Amino acid sequence: MFNIKVNPRKAKQNQDLQSLSKEELIDRVQQLESHVIQLRNLLKPKSVPEKHEMKQKAFDHKKYAKRHVLLQVAYVGWDYAGFVVQEHTEKTIEAEVFKALEKTRLLESRETSNYHRCGRTDKGVSSFGQAISIDLRSNLSEGKGVFIPDGHQAKVGNTVEIDYVGILNKVLPPEIRMIAWAPINQSLSARFDCRQRTYHYYFPKANLNIERMRVASQSLIGEHDFRNLCKMDVGNGVIKFDRRIMDIQIEAIDDDKANSYSMIRLKLIGQAFLWHQVRCIVAILFLIGQGKEETTIIQELLNVERNPRKPQYGMASEIPLNLFTCTYSDDDCQWIYDAESLRYVISGYQTLWAENSIKATMIKEMLNSLEGLLDDKIESQLKGLVYGVEPKTYLPLMERQKCESLEERIHVYAKRQRIEVIETDANCP
């Protein structure tokens, strides 16, 4: 026999339940379920809303003055669709820069920011010294470039300016970095007040005769009409193609100058450049370096009276091109560098360098092994650096089919515009 103890209170509750009708039992169960739900809600920990769900407090720009500044922007542009914002993609350097400026509350809007860019680098082109001028929020109430817009009430007494470079680099993608900033007068424009622009173009020596390229390149120095060494942009109102090149240098970067894998840098300095001008110049210099064209071909292309129509040829690749510096008067611009920000930028770019250098070293080792299996020497390093199909038999430039002349392009564009105006008028009620 088991000795079982019965709880008197529980026995009474069971007896009470047994006396209830079916409807009363259902009602009792529903009450208990409702009570359980209430208890669960009381015991449930309060959930913290996601960051994007939290209502952000409106930032009051009217509590701050503004400052007109230059920013030096560096970027590796290989995976971007160019610098300038575009409608069909968000993958542009400019779009990322403005996302960072808005996220850090450094500006109210692009429309009111007095913004100018120095250069419009194309898809895949990089830069170390791109410059933009812009009005940003300031901690100060006075100083070079500082102004207080109508309706703003800047705090007086602050002596430390916002760390523009540091805070922007914390929110920009790793390929894009701010290098320095400079306070400037409100009237200064990154585009119109730039004294000179310097482009670098990197390429392997391959089978090029670098000395022939140097000789030919000297014909570019000075002011010339470069319509045969650019892509004519008549649709955007560009009908004058006179530009001045101040200097051009072609130098080996590596110590082993005789090696076909050694890297060469072309440095081109000018006040302003035309659309695809540098890439067209490099493409022609490649032909000269390969012995396919004479060094005098540059002079022929610059003589637009005798050669008003550009011969068809492929441009050099955009990947090796870098807008390296944008230069301003020392009176207008004194760049401010921060040691901590420079360390941050260097560390990040060292990571990018290591990744790409490892890839290049791995491929070079594979090439060394492959080349050891052949007796003859292959020098095709330039093959992917010029667009277009390479013909089996080379046709000299001046014997090729020619593009439309400038006058023909203007005529065609004007005719197209007239047709569009007529069609628009016809469709209007």
Structural features, described:
Belongs to the tRNA pseudouridine synthase TruA family. GO terms for molecular function: pseudouridine synthase activity; RNA binding. One of its GO terms (cellular component) is nucleus. One of its GO terms (biological process) is tRNA pseudouridine synthesis. Among the domains are: 61-183, Alpha-Beta Plaits (2-Layer Sandwich), CATH 3.30.70; 196-327 and 383-407, Alpha-Beta Plaits. Residues 1-7 have low confidence and may be disordered. The chain has 429 residues and is an alpha+beta fold. The N and C termini lie far apart (106 Å). The longest helix has 33 residues, at 339-371. Strands 1, 2, 3, 4, 5, 6, 7, 8, 9 and 10 form a ten-stranded mixed β-sheet that branches. The radius of gyration is 34 Å and the shape is extended. 31% of the residues lie in helices and 17% in strands. The protein has helices at 8-18, 22-43, 93-103, 164-169, 210-217, 277-289, 297-302, 339-371, 406-427; strands spanning 65-75, 116-117, 126-138, 146-147, 176-183, 196-204, 222-225, 242-252, 263-270, 321-327.
